[in-house]
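User: Predict the complex.
Assistant: Input components as received:
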Amino acid sequence: MRYTFLLYSDPSDFADMTPEDWAREKEVYGAYIGALQDAGVFVDTDWLQPADTATTITLKDGERRVQDGPYAETRETLGGFFAIDVPDLDAALAWAEKCPAAKHGKVEIRASAMGGA
Amino acid sequence: MTATKARAEDVARAAYGKLIAMLASRSGDILAAEDALSDAFVAALQTWPERGVPENPESWLLTVARNRRTDQVRKDARLVIVDEVPEMIETRAIHTEPNLDERLELMFVCAHPAIDPSVRTPLMLQTVLGLEADQIARAFLVSPSAMAQRLVRAKRKIKAACIPFVVPDAEHYSDRMAFLLEATYGAYAVDWLEGVGDLSHEAFFLSTILADLAPKDPEALGLSALIGFIEARRDARVKNGVLIPVQEQDTALWDGPLIDRSASVLARAASLGRLGRFQLEAAIQSVHAARATTGRTDWRALSQLYLGLVQSYPTLGAAVSRAAVVAEDAGPGEALALLEKIELSAVQRYQPFHAVQAHCFARLERLTEALEAYDRAIFLCVDVPSRRWLKKRKVDLQSRLS
């Protein structure tokens, strides 16, 4: 089963971070990615530009509408994701628990509706 | 026909959870398992009266349910009437591994931390014991449709999120077992007094299953003993619609064999050498139970056990119950002092607090305060027998005043 971790955090929590802090953070994520790869469960990951740079498009009401900004304005925004391939939710939870993003924000775990790998 | 129907119902009750667990464990699809099993029961009611009850009814039901599910999986467009039922020669026992019972895995799924805590107990009652949603809804004081919706949502989540049907590994076992025991205890506590929906009886059943499935878990045994002791007093706890407190109950109405069994389960738990909350609570009930043979309640022992309970597992209920026991052991003044230590905002709406307070005031001849406390307790009391009991005590007190 493929699971995606949606990483939510409050950007203001990172406002005071120094370049050294960021470098350390990068290392921490690098180690996490390495661990996922070593375990053979890594599928994909990305770190996204801030939510206020988002562009939202919808054709829902039959009309093409493009909007500057994220779909929903919330304090905690989607900052990135991981996709991993593990047998079940318990295994996914075990990896999500180790995800550095869980320390600062929240990790939402969603199973793939397409099923497997 | 009625005999066959009764037999089918007996089999259903005894085997329901096992069959659901076996049908759902691989796919994680509890809803489909329930559908398939209910079809199998319909088939049983149709065929058993003609051909007789099969030698191994559980295997029979499992085979029919599996066939039904395979049909569904194939998405056969035509309506499949259940006519292909297995022959009577099906005598293979369900379990090749006697130590493995899928019900435990199913229970762990129901009590999984990824499931909304408020639905864990209902989910267990439905999937393990086969209770209907409206029966559960009554006990949990929610509308049947709301309960049905919550249950369906939980089952969908189990499948969609791929919650595994396994006994958790050592790292997570004790946390999840604690959830499971809480859920079972919750089911028992939810209507222990009225016992109208028989829910407490079902929870009692659940706790015995749990103790059978996890015989090395002292708290599973402790819970089974705890519920057993309380269940043994079922016939004595209400008389003419009025609650009778445990120390005043007619011990002749207690279920002696169940008390003995609970005592031996508790002894087995103790021999495992890991004390826990349910074992302590069971020990408290065993002291009450001892009155059947000794003729008196050992308030000193109760007071000590409650001290242990509030120190290790502090809850509001334990703190208030401890005060009630101290009132009998050391006296009402000491009990009131204990009650005063509890944060008032926490107990304002907690009925037992006011009842114990009223009792202590009355014994200290502080009658006005006692009457006021009874009024608060009566106002907060939702179950009928307890309410009548409180009113009776208030009336007795008033007659002393006039």
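The first helix of chain A runs from residue 19 to 38.
Let me know if you want any component modeled separately.
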